Amino acid sequence: MNNKRIELLKIISHPTRIKILEELSRGVKCVRDIEEFLEVRQANISQHLTLLRHSRAVDYYMDGRLRCYFLKDPMVPEILKALKKNYTKDLPAPECCPVTKKGYTLGKGRSK
Question: Which of 30, 43, 44, 87 is 20 to 30 A (C-alpha) from 102?
């Protein structure tokens, strides 16, 4: 996995930044819009947006004096979609797993 993806995952892993990204996935928002739905102070939102912008997850354009933010990295909507999935079962254990006592283990022949 390349470092850019790892850094992006680190940046977006904060709950507030995930909420910001979820809102931006619905469309362009200015800081005032984000402030209203998050009920977080503007200075705090700006710090989160700066980190997201530096990671290239989001970008903005100017509309008069307003900064209008939007999603930029195409991986972000895919990550958000995976986070929303409801996983109800674990992956199955392999048959050679020592827990299931099935299959072969390295160098010991058939396990019982």
Answer: 87
Domain with 63 in it: what CATH number?
Answer: 1.10.10.10
User: What percent of the chain is predicted at pLDDT more than 90?
Assistant: 55
Contact 58, 71 (CB under 8 A): yes
Six-digit token pair at 39? 């009920």
What residue type is assigned to position 103 of the chain? G
Q: Give the residues across from 105 on adjacent strands.
A: 109
Q: Which domain covers residue 65, as residue numbers?
A: 3-84
pTM over 0.85: no
